[in-house]
Amino acid sequence: MPYRDLREFIKRLEEEGELIRVKAPVSWDQELAEVFVRACKEKNRAILFEKVEGSEFPVLIGQLTSQKRVELALERDSKELDDEIENLLNQPRNDFPPKIVGSGSCQEVVMTGDDVDLLKFPVPKFNEKEGGRYITAGVSISKDPETGARNAGIYRMMVRRENEINVNFGFPNRHMLRHFQKREKEGKPLDVAVVIGCDPAVWLCAALPLAGKIDEVAQAGAIRGKAVEMVKCKTNDLEVPADAEMILEGELVPNLKRPEGPYVDFQGYYTKAKDNYVISIKCITHRKGAIYDTSMTGRLPEGEMEVYRYLLSKQQKTQLKKAIPEIVDFTFDPASMGHIYIASISKEKPFLAKEIADKIWSFPWSIMIKQLIIVDSDIDVNDPSQVMWALATRVDFEKDIYLLPGKQGPSFDVATAGRPAVTKMVVDATIKLPVEGYPGKFPEPGSPSKEVIEKVKKKWKEYGIR
């Protein structure tokens, strides 16, 4: 059965040894973040902080920041995801559309008017020089004013005061921003609901860059194999997951921006403060004993970026294999925060690495890639030690590195100061053929036979090695 809510998922994580509870009091002001960072370096697990100073609500962080926890969230292992990813993430699904119900536990407590106070909740401040406390894991729901199509996305939000937050969209093509721009032309606000603490399938669908024609909540229903139950908001016409922990109901205010930041983004550096859009909060509803869900970017690869590395690279690999059948596997190095990609290929002809690189640059999401490393199919792209070995032993740096000037770069890249046109790099770390200029036959890597490797894999538990 799919998880009904975040609490059922927390229970599963605890059963699997993937969650630890911190009972000692912590401050929301940087201390919580530092404990999480240090704990992840020892062993990457989710943490539930049961006592956060100044608030009655506990805080969950890191619920989806590992491959295992993502697989638990989707109730599929890596092989099953490889087989299903095209159908689950790249194709619109409406076989389990959202189900509207009359009431939900997310509205057990209702705060309106002067009772609306975001500062009662343990919204963290993660780093010393950040501009304020940040909502980072909220699923923002809006509807297209023209078509009524629902969108769910995740955007960073700074708490400005008790009933007001900034929202940073990051990219100009975000769907909620498009919805808002249509309303703003009319001088009208856009209704918004921010969902904090929901079924992990809903969160993952909101976090991933799904096509605009996809309703993320319906897509989550397809992943779950069961419709997501939704309840009408108290102060606007939107629907939200009925068993979420907390809902912020508000509106994006037209023709109004206020300072937001600095904030440590996924690259690990402070961004500059700048004027960003404002959401006025009209109502807060929550479950009794609500759990505040958060995420953290920047300081550790085991943070929010790991979610994207695991699922996004699977989604991209599926797209690539349609255009480039020689692609075997594809991912990015988590420590590079999505800037260094590694592709393994089945090399059946010479100079294939450069040809494949040219095709990869044609995809819109390649704007993020600064360096592309291409390796042979015997290299596990998810094992940094194997990739480094290929770089050290299969690259002639005089011949196998290609610099490609004039490529579009991301506006938030601190290394290039956001220049629109940058130089990118391709490293051909494949075994070279004689026709590619290698003198003779490339030496064969040493290894036990495939039969012995498979035998050891099957018998591993018998060896008693822990």
UniProtKB/TrEMBL annotation:
One of its GO terms (molecular function) is carboxy-lyase activity. Residues 10-87 form the 3-octaprenyl-4-hydroxybenzoate carboxy-lyase-like N-terminal domain. One of its GO terms (biological process) is cinnamic acid catabolic process. One of its GO terms (cellular component) is cytoplasm. Residues 102-299 form the 3-octaprenyl-4-hydroxybenzoate carboxy-lyase-like Rift-related domain. InterPro entries: UbiD (IPR002830), UbiD-like_C (IPR049381), UbiD-like_N (IPR049383), UbiD_Rift_dom (IPR048304). It holds the Pfam family UbiD_N. Residues 318-429 form the 3-octaprenyl-4-hydroxybenzoate carboxy-lyase-like C-terminal domain. PANTHER family: 3-OCTAPRENYL-4-HYDROXYBENZOATE CARBOXY-LYASE-RELATED, FERULIC ACID DECARBOXYLASE 1. This is UbiD family decarboxylase.
